[in-house]
């Protein structure tokens, strides 16, 4: 049985129709990347799963149960955790407090100290307010805040956006370790190299619908797809 | 412009001290109203106009309980036996009854009605809460009648303390000032140190992210609204011995509470405290400077803050 299965999912922001008949199946311990141009519907796909899109139709079955009508907090408590675009750290809370809020909201959390082992950079910043962290530090905290909740299905929305290459490398190392563990991951990413290195399977989304899916190895040999849908030239 | 020292010279030192103490005392119970208003706005982003009426109902409940629970049909059925078994002075029971009644009422108003307009524009929220103001005021008139109520504080407070030669402060005024400070410290500690406080702060800064972490935001909102209502009820009960209780009390109070919140910065507790003290002092001193015109000063202060520092003295600028 798939961990997550989307069928005929349509999503809307007010009058604008963003996803059309979205189909996707994610298996246990899959690392799936959603690829596509800006505005293709990658983030909206994740938001449909977490319940944060204003309106969605179709079925979203998570571990055998349709969650498409559940509230956001209920979906989260079922084990689906999002690292959102823009990181969304609580700005007036300290690093420790950000983790405590997540830890205490979860019924089977991981230890907060474990997060400081995984992200040593956060260990030195325990008492710093979220708003005083650099973009890279905030991204680490955002990932840690999701991990401390012991996710079963982890969603990462543009994790490398706006980060310096050296930070992207750090993040890559951490995420490679994370995905080794017993967790299923869906990520969206503009940085094709990053995502092809991390992921095993890929979906290409264009204008709100899936146009191709397959393994990352297959995709590497398909310069035509990379060029047509992602504007990545084969030379890269 | 008249220099400040000329104005102050019209006050004898004794009168000045007395008015400062009166001002702090007024500020203390204004704080008790404004802090709940500020809490609700800070977390729920709703301007709760019913807050003054909740305060007024708290005052009525305290008065009726303190006089033994009788006289009000329906209510006396519950209150009289309660007063009979209560071991302490009925005034203390009055504070509890006020807090519980107003808390329940707040819970009903939030979960039944206000909850449905969170995503609407502020005007809708304002109209809805204003409708409740009018309704609850009329309902209070139906239940308690149109007369004035007044109670005296319990005997333990029938003492005065000499501050300077010729200036004495009543025990009850000191008690109210102490309660305001205590409630501020308790709120501050709860918000700063406890899990529910952290969750409240997190949700007030990013409600969607809080939901994504699995926090039941509607339930938290109801809890915060009830907490704010309980504060209003207790504030009303504490203010009851200081003035006559009538159905116009709610409107008087809500206007000053908004002035306090605007000056201090909506959503800030320290702001609510400082704002309440400023308004209390302006009211008390202002009435001596311009006879009968003391109520001018708080509005002048509000206008100055609104124009030059719209986020308030302690408010955070919205990102």
TrEMBL record, chain A:
Swiss-Prot/TrEMBL GO biological process terms: amino acid transport
Superkingdom, natural source: Archaea
Residue ranges occupied by any ABC transporter domain in the UniProt entry: 4-232
Family annotation (SUPFAM superfamilies): P-loop containing nucleoside triphosphate hydrolases
Key words, A-Z: Amino-acid transport, ATP-binding, Nucleotide-binding, Transport
CDD domains: ABC_TM1139_LivF_branched
UniProt GO MF annotations: ATP binding
InterPro entries listed in its UniProt record: AAA+_ATPase, ABC_transporter-like_ATP-bd, ABC_transporter-like_CS, BCAA_Transport_ATP-bd_LivF, P-loop_NTPase
Family the UniProt entry places it in: Belongs to the ABC transporter superfamily.
Protein's recorded name: ABC transporter ATP-binding protein
Species in which this protein is naturally found: Halomarina rubra
From TrEMBL, chain B:
Claim: Calcium is one of the keywords in the record: no
InterPro entries in alphabetical order: ABC_transp_permease (IPR001851), BCAA_transport_permease (IPR052157)
Principal location class: membrane
Subcellular location: Cell membrane
Transmembrane residue ranges: 20-41, 53-79, 91-114, 126-151, 171-191, 220-242, 254-282, 289-308
UniProt keyword list: Amino-acid transport, Cell membrane, Membrane, Transmembrane, Transmembrane helix, Transport
Keyword Ubl conjugation annotated: no
Biological processes, Gene Ontology terms: amino acid transport
Membrane topology: Multi-pass membrane protein
CC annotations in GO: plasma membrane
Stated family: Belongs to the binding-protein-dependent transport system permease family. LivHM subfamily.
Name of protein: Branched-chain amino acid ABC transporter permease
